[in-house]
Structure formats: structure tokens, C-alpha cells
Amino acid sequence: MKHLSRRDYRARPWKNGGGVTHEVAVWPEGAGMDDFAWRVSLAELQGPGPFSIYPGVSRSLLLLEGNPVRLEIDGVTTWLDRQHPPLDFCGTANVFAHPDGRALDVGIMSRIGRCRHSCRVVQLAGKAALTRSAHTEVLMLVEGGPLRIASSTGVVALDRLESLWLEAQDDTVLHLEAAHPARLLISAFETSC
């Protein structure tokens, strides 16, 4: 169980040079944009622009802050907003973002043939048990906080936009406690290498 605070996130330029991303977690650790198996990152959208192209990569996106963002994905208009589940799309898609002011999103990527990912948002209030289902999971508190997460090896308190990286050796069942309503993003990864 590895607690990742915002100061641990590494700033990196976007692959297309159009902005900056803050890498939350990547596997293998230290991997670059062309050789990761999976990756979780935060990105700030400050104006209209294209997304980077990632051949052979599956992507998911969740809006965390800001007004809804209009996306053109291969010529089809869709909206990214805080009320909907993560949006899935192919890394080779031509994506152009039209934010209405500043927006912050979290992106989840996995390299096809090396890894598969899934992600979901869980609403929390009070106490709950979370049963893990994947080899590797990254939990990110996207709203509310703090969130207390207990396992047999200890207790971690996540503040908003902090994360917890879990591996196979970590507990299958985690005990969560939120003093206030919270939303938790669960990104699950199954690697095939």
C-alpha cells in the first residue's frame, strides 16, 4: 500500500507539447510516454487544443474541476462533465478539447497487449468495505475528504486528489471511512507481461 500525495506527482510535458501533466502513477515505475504499461495522470486544460495521439493505448478520462468540456472525438461531439462516469476512447482517436475556462481531469491509460484497465467512481458517506478485484489498483479521492482507508498493515488518510497504489500482496478487503460525502476513483489494472 503506497500513499501518493500531490507533491509526489511528477510534472511532465504533454506528448504533443501542448501543456503539462502531473503523473500520479506509472508502470513500470519510471517508464516514459512510449513504454508504459499503464499510467494515471492529472492534466489541466486552459484553452482549446488537441489531445496527444497514443497508438496502441486505451484511454479513460474523468473531469474533476471546471465547467463541462466539449470534446470532438473523431468528428463526433461529446461532453465531459463531473456527473458522468469516466469516458473511454482509443489512443489513436483525434480528440480536440473545448474547455469553458480552466478544467482539471484525470486520465487513465493502458497499453493494449500489455495491460487492460477499468475504472469506476464510488460514492462514499460514512463507513464501507471495498473488496479489490484486480492485481493492481490506484485509488484517488476525487471529491470530499479526508478519507480514511484501513487494512491489516495500517491506516492511510487521503486528502482530495491524493492516491493509494495497491498491489497483489496488499489486502483484498479495505475498510473505508468518510466523515463527509466523498467520491473515490478506482482504476484497476491487469497486466499480461
Structure description:
With 193 residues, this protein is mainly beta. Helices cover 0% and strands 62% of the residues. The chain has strands spanning 2-4, 10-13, 20-27, 38-45, 49-50, 57-65, 69-73, 76-80, 87-90, 95-99, 103-111, 115-131, 136-143, 147-151, 154-158, 163-166, 173-191. The strands form 3 sheets. Strands 1, 12, 13, 14, 15, 16 and 17 form a 7-stranded antiparallel beta sheet that branches. The protein has a 6-stranded antiparallel beta sheet with strand order 2-3-4-11-6-9, with no helix packed on it. Strands 5-10-7-8 form a 4-stranded antiparallel beta sheet, with no helix packed on it. The two termini are 21 Å apart.
SSE order, one letter for each helix or strand:
EEEEEEEEEEEEEEEEE
Derived from helix and strand composition plus strand pairing, the structural class reads mainly beta
Percent of sequence in beta strands: over 45%
How many strands appear in the DSSP assignment? 17
Cα-to-Cα separation, first versus last residue = 21 Å
Residue windows where pLDDT falls under 50 for at least 5 positions:
none
Spatial extent as radius of gyration:
16 Å
Average pLDDT number: 93
Shape, principal axes of CA atoms? globular
Largest sheet: 7 strands, antiparallel
Percent helix, as a range, is under 10%
Number of helices: 0
Give the assembly state of these chains.
Answer: single chain
Structure characteristics:
single chain, 193 residues, mainly beta, 7-stranded antiparallel beta sheet, 0% helix, globular
